[in-house]
User: What shape does this take?
Amino acid sequence: MAIKTEREYRMIQLPEMQFRAVEEDEQSYIVEGYATTFNDPYVMYEWEGVKYKEEIDRDALLDADMSDVIFLYNHEGMVYARQANGTLQLSQNDKGLYIRADLSSTEASRQMFESIKAGLVTQMSWAFTIAEEEYDEKKHLRRIRKVNKVYDVSAVSIPANPNTDISARSYWDGVIEEERRSERERAEKVERIKNKLKGDVHE
Assistant: This one.
């Protein structure tokens, strides 16, 4: 399967996934949280009552390029922390991808810390590309088996609906269209069989 080059963005909207300031001491500007969970399906799209879900495999990040991930705000603008200089740490555990960032480097990063501490910014998102995936049509579940590269983790103020992510929307539109096509073909096949049986009865 070819590696997808378009970046995708995900945010887990769960209370336990909130980004938070760590109260270590008065001089501490540490924040922590989870960018994603593993083996924990979340709804990405809903169409005509069907919930289409996605999950990140527990081993999806084992071979991913996470050599210089940066910490941003809403996936753009100023860099507040960075792996390369030790102010951003990423680690994987059974729950997910854990983030710990030191926001003491600049005035802007300290202001970001205060916003997180005050509860004005409470959620995280991450940007990545996919190397391997599979889709379970019966469960309407997309499994991301391998991530190719993690570009950034981001504090977000207004959670982005995954449906507005162009690459994600394109994927799910394709899935839904394929499922609807298959349903039409099955219905047409059943109709042809019924018509044939009716014809046989009348002969």
